[in-house]
Design brief:
There is one protein chain. By secondary structure, the protein is an alpha+beta fold. It has a five-stranded antiparallel sheet, with helices on both faces. Strand 4 and strand 5 form a beta hairpin. The longest helix has about 70 residues.
Length: about 200
């Protein structure tokens, strides 16, 4: 098992009940920037961001005292603080075993920097698409409103054209009646013309 741990391409760390590092493989050296000698014998807090240390200590103490897990031990995403001060996102799974009467915990870590970056890019692209979709929806609504306004304007224009045509026809008829009246010789002829004009208007 020790050979497998040493040759693993992924970082492996083992701690005791006090969170003291008792084992680290070469992959942990490459990932975190500390040598094995710098890590073994030190508190795991050296690799934990400051704002998470208290939570980690409380979780370990709770499990050691009660045997009850507060978090999942498989596929947990956490940041690791490297020697350079940067934070490396990892996915960690835990295992527990006893050695010489001492309870130990091993963490099998996987660098997920690329996965996190891909998720960030996809998330940003999704947000951009959502924003563009919202803008398009707004443009469609505005276009629909403009279309309705144009349809209303066209309807009003058509009505005005009809009224204008009707007025023009009435004016034409009145002009024709005036011409005929000028030609009328008697009052009876005038009455007949007026009667015919009224019937034509009705028709």
């Amino acid at each position: 098992n020790g050979v497998l741990a040493e040759s693993s391409p992924d970082p492996i760390l083992t701690i005791d009940e006090t969170s003291t590092i008792v084992f680290a493989n070469e992959a942990a050296e490459r990932a975190f920037g500390y040598s094995v000698g710098e890590m073994v014998g030190q508190s795991l807090h050296m690799l934990i961001p400051a704002d998470l240390r208290e939570r980690h200590a409380a979780g370990v103490a709770h499990y050691v005292n009660t045997g009850v897990r507060r978090i999942a031990w498989q596929g947990l995403r956490v940041p690791v603080r490297t020697k350079s001060g940067t934070e490396l996102p990892v996915e960690i799974s835990f295992g527990e075993f006893e050695w010489q009467g001492q309870k130990l915990f091993s963490g099998f870590l996987r660098d997920i920097s690329q996965q996190v970056e891909n998720e960030r890019v996809i998330g940003a692209a999704h947000a951009q698409l959502q924003e563009q979709a919202s803008e398009l929806e707004q443009q469609v609504e505005e276009a629909q409103m403009l279309t309705e306004e144009l349809e209303l304007s066209n309807a009003e224009a058509e009505l005005r054209a009809q009224l204008a045509a009707s007025s023009a026809e009435r004016a034409k008829r009145l002009l024709a009646l005036s011409t005929e009246l000028n030609k009328a010789a008697t009052a009876s002829d005038v009455a007949d013309l007026i009667l015919d004009a009224g019937m034509s208007a009705v028709g």
